[in-house]
Write a structure and sequence with these properties.
By secondary structure, this protein is an all-alpha fold. The protein has six helices and no strands.
Length: 190
């Protein structure tokens, strides 16, 4: 991808400084040395890049918190909205633990659908951002071309933590459901 006047070196990180120092001494003084790691570091410390990254992180955290709150409110409202049907099931002998499990399963299915939708939306937006940056970065076509490189271990760890928190919050929201000795009637506090 380079030009005939370019020489690209793949140098291990431990030897990078020594190689750059040698390239700045004769007979290489006529060369213009550019380090990809230095260029990357300067771009990472640009105020606009840092601000954009902070904004995206804040938006992601806000979205996760709102999703967790939606799951808890969904489980609570489902218990309230389905009170008559749940009362009938409990009166017919369905164990309270089974009814709590049913509420938790419904919340889990809603959470899974939301997570899948969020993942697809996130992937699509990430691809759009890469294309947008390619169009606007330095007003030239990037060389080498930009690639989307997600940090999969971080994404999977964050998803696992969010799933555990979601399960705990839904379990907490449904913990007191069907705990009375007598099934609560429709409209009564459970």
């Amino acid at each position: 991808f380079g030009f005939p006047t370019e020489l690209w070196l793949d140098v291990p990180g431990s030897r990078r400084a020594a190689v750059e120092a040698k390239l700045r001494k004769p007979p290489f003084t006529a060369l213009a040395v550019a380090s990809q790691s230095q260029r990357e570091a300067s771009l990472r410390h640009e105020p606009i890049a840092r601000g954009a990254l902070a904004m995206l992180e804040a938006a992601a955290i806000t979205a996760v918190v709102l999703a967790l709150l939606a799951l808890v409110l969904g489980a609570s409202s489902e218990r309230r909205d389905e009170a008559a049907e749940l009362f009938d099931l409990e009166a017919q002998g369905v164990a309270p633990a089974s009814l709590r499990r049913q509420l938790r399963l419904r919340a889990s299915m809603a959470g899974l659908a939301g997570a899948l939708g969020g993942a697809v939306t996130g992937l699509a937006l990430s691809l759009l951002v890469v294309r947008f940056v390619e169009l606007t970065a330095n007003a030239t076509v990037p060389e080498p071309p930009l690639e989307l490189a997600p940090d999969w271990p971080l994404i999977l760890a964050a998803a696992a933590v969010a799933a555990v928190i979601a399960a705990a919050l839904v379990a907490l929201a449904t913990h007191r459901a069907f705990r009375g000795r007598v099934p609560a009637r429709y409209g009564e506090a459970a």
